[in-house]
Request: fold
Amino acid sequence: MSETTRDVTAPAATRSLPANSIGLFGTTSSTLANIAPALSVFLTIPAIVLSMGSMAPWAFVLAAIAILATGNSLIEFTRRMPSAGGFISYLTRAVRGSRTGTFLGSMTFYLLLFIYPVSVGSVVVFIGSWTVSYANWSPGIWIWVTLGAMVAGLPVLLRGTGISVKAAFVMFLTEAVALVLFAVVVLVRAHSALAVPFHAIGGSPGGFAGIGGLTFGLAVFAYVGWENSAPLAEESKNPRRTIPLTVVLSIGVVMLVFFLAAYALVVGYASWQGSAKGIASIGSLANPYLTLTSHYVPWLHLIMFLIGVTSSFGCYLAAALPGSRYIYHGSRAGLLPAQLSRVSARTGVPYASITLYVALMVATTVILDLILHSAGSIATYEAGISTVPLLIIYGATCALLPFFVWRTDRGTFSVLRHIVFPLLGVGVVGYGIWESINPGQAAPADHYWYYVLAYLVVGAAGGLYALRSRGPRAEVLSRGLE
Reply:
């Protein structure tokens, strides 16, 4: 690792992250687990079917293409400046002027500091609510199941990045194999309805006309986590090649899993109950996958429940990697106490950052439980209010990429990669943001914009504090591998 990655202002106990410790398998495994395909498809497919009807599986294909346009910007930044700071580093260096870069980078850091614990908290809340619902336990027990999952994952995260990556991969493999097996069995047994997803049946307004609005936003949000590998750059082998490959491979693999699972769901219900009635059933059921499993593959029912748990737990483990690296990077840059950037000499993990990350998630869950008293409400609020600030960061990365490449690497400037794709990314992200905070939505989504505004105010206050305190400079915030 180059000298530029070492924080000379940090305490003596601080160490750099171990270079070349994660290969393509590790970065891809953690990203796949972070996206959590089983969890995403379980939660989003009923709403998508309500809008698109039988053509709902194609929403995931269109969303993957849109996400790749956004991912292109991360790829282009990583090829030029891989860093544990990820978006923090990219946005810091993308603008002209040290003070502007310091403000934007610091603001991005404080946004990410709260985005990750809140958004991933919604995933772990799902473990509690899903388990309690399946086992028919008292609803109030969900909080203890959720907190138990968080505590159980902490030793895994602290034992080493390699252990965390392998555990996350096992979680992903479990859900992927189960979903593909489910899809194959259903498609074989319901072969008479294989053509249904090619015709517009049901939904309002139905077909591709239903892809607009919140439906497209849901399909795009299902891929959130695709950026997981960027903050692992300083630990990755050949990050300028590994991270771009990870982004493309992860989106491609998850798209196939999403499409197969959604295709089988539509075909299965159409064959079982008739095209129109079957499509209507999907949108009206709380757990259409479990219901369909009971009909076609009853011996897989318990496994389908379990992958809801493993998908959520794998996402929790995988998301802790970028979440803690952002804290590590901000701490070594001076935005938090330097002690939080300490790295274990034995395991090579930023143990202080990981501990803070989990503690923030626990605190958020407990506080929201005291206020809302409902796992479903908490998960909805956490996911709804934290996704939009992350989309804003995606959009800023796309918008600033052309200026960054033109200023620093003009010889490689490409109209397609550095203008067309970023503009598509800005369009996709902007559309998703508006559909998420549109005040005309039903409650509680009609009030999400209040929380998004609060996020931005806190982030901006952090950026102004960094400037007034004469804390980190832009070159420190954008530190990484040269």
Summary: Residues 1-13 have pLDDT under 50 and may be disordered. The chain has 17 helices and no strands. Residues 3-477 form a domain with the Amino acid/polyamine transporter I fold (CATH 1.20.1740.10). The two ends are 9 Å apart (CA to CA).
